[in-house]
Hints:
Blueprint: E1 17-22, E2 28-33, E3 38-42, E4 48-53, E5 62-65, E6 71-75, E7 79-84, E8 90-95, E9 99-104, E10 110-115, E11 119-124, E12 127-131, E13 146-147, E14 154-159, E15 162-167, E16 172-177, E17 186-189, E18 193-198, E19 201-206, E20 217-218, E21 223-228, E22 234-239, E23 242-247, E24 251-255
Antiparallel strand pairs: 1-2, 2-3, 3-4, 5-6, 6-7, 7-8, 9-10, 10-11, 11-12, 13-14, 14-15, 15-16, 17-18, 18-19, 19-20, 21-22, 22-23, 23-24
Amino acid sequence: MEDGRQQGQTMKASSPVRSVGVSQDGQWIVFGDHNNNAILWNAAATQAKVRKFTEHSCRVNWVDTSSDGTKLATADFFRARIFSIPYGDRLLPLSHSNVAGVKFFPGGTRFATASTAQGFRVYSTDNILFDSGQSGCASGYFVTPLVWPPDGQQLLVANKGKIICFGLSKSLTSEWSIHENQSQPSIASNSRFIACAAHSSVSLWDCASHKQISSIITHTTVVGRAAVSPSGWYLACGNGKNITIHGQYLDYSVSVHPLMKLASLTITMLFLCPA
């Protein structure tokens, strides 16, 4: 993080990568690609490809792993699927049209999907615990519209001009306006702060009060993804072919190889190169 150097070898994909997920223990990395596949890699030991999941009918735009590293969630535009790791047993298919995101609950027992047409849903195994209906629709496909902060107390859904908050304990929703209402926002959180990227600017919000806690951070190009470190000291913004790191003690950019495209941004900053 301090020097922006690459850690480990580059993992090459056979088609453009649409999404990236990393397990909390760092053992598993999963790619969702343009050829309707999800690819599981063992990042901790051999850095080898473990399994290819071919059940999707169109490109896999969203992936996530459970906190215990035993389950994988994948989603295309039409449905989400849950698989076991590493064996690949299909545990659950979920029909939710116009899917725009899938995310596991931090404890691993629940998960959520977001849709641009049917709102967001919270599940426990195969039961729907909450369905927002159309009032909770996500704003777009090519951002990060769905975040479950590590404390697991609230689910955040980004929509154009606002963030919707679902309180798990009382199944209540609230919402507040953000700094920009013309672009599809992308959000990230670490339980203390919420980073909201919209077009070329980023705002920071307090998770508990939902109040803005800093001035707007502006960039010269569109910010497609953002990530907040667990400590809250670092904010990583994917803009153009660069990652800009904002922090308490530093503020610099890391260039991406010209052939690479930013598929997903986590605080570990993973980049994938299409063949």
